[in-house]
């Protein structure tokens, strides 16, 4: 389902966000975006933000957003990348079965260590010096 964008904000504070929608960083843009990028001022960190150029583009032409429903992973973080990779592998028909076996073996090997760590955290500390 597509919707016409009325505005776009780069990483707003949650309390200041104009909606509960987010940009996942995949764009199909007209060549006119390059003129807007050329005219976009760098932010305090010295970066020119594509979202600022898209915001400028809104004054000249229609910008559409595609709303999809599903899981989004922050692949800009190491943990998000790992989560995305695991999800992809578990859904991929070519590697799913072998990857599931691998995960089961790894989790089985780690369980005694994890249980031991939990047990150690829950035991009272000794007052002996």
- Number of distinct beta strands: 2
- Summarize the biggest pleated sheet: 2 strands, antiparallel
Strand composition percent: under 5%
How would the global form be characterised? elongated
| Biggest sheet, spatial arrangement of strands | 1-2
> What fraction, in percent, of the residue positions are helical?
40-55%
What do the pLDDT scores average to?
A: 88
How many domain units?
2
Helix/strand/pairing category:
mainly alpha
Distance between the termini: 66 Å
Determine the number of helices (DSSP H or I, runs of at least 4 residues).
4
Q: Specify Rg, calculated over alpha carbons.
A: 23 Å
| Contiguous runs where pLDDT drops below 50 for at least 5 residues | none
Q: What's the SSE pattern?
A: EHHEHH
This entry's quaternary arrangement is single chain
SSE layout and pairing:
Blueprint: E1 2-4, H1 33-38, H2 50-57, E2 64-66, H3 78-91, H4 96-122
Antiparallel strand pairs: 1-2
Plain-language structure description:
The chain is mostly helical. It has 2 domains: 2-66, no CATH class; 78-122. The chain is built from 4 helices and 2 strands. It has helices at residues 33-38, 50-57, 78-91, 96-122, and strands spanning 2-4, 64-66. The longest helix is centred in the C-terminal third of the chain and has 27 residues, at 96-122.
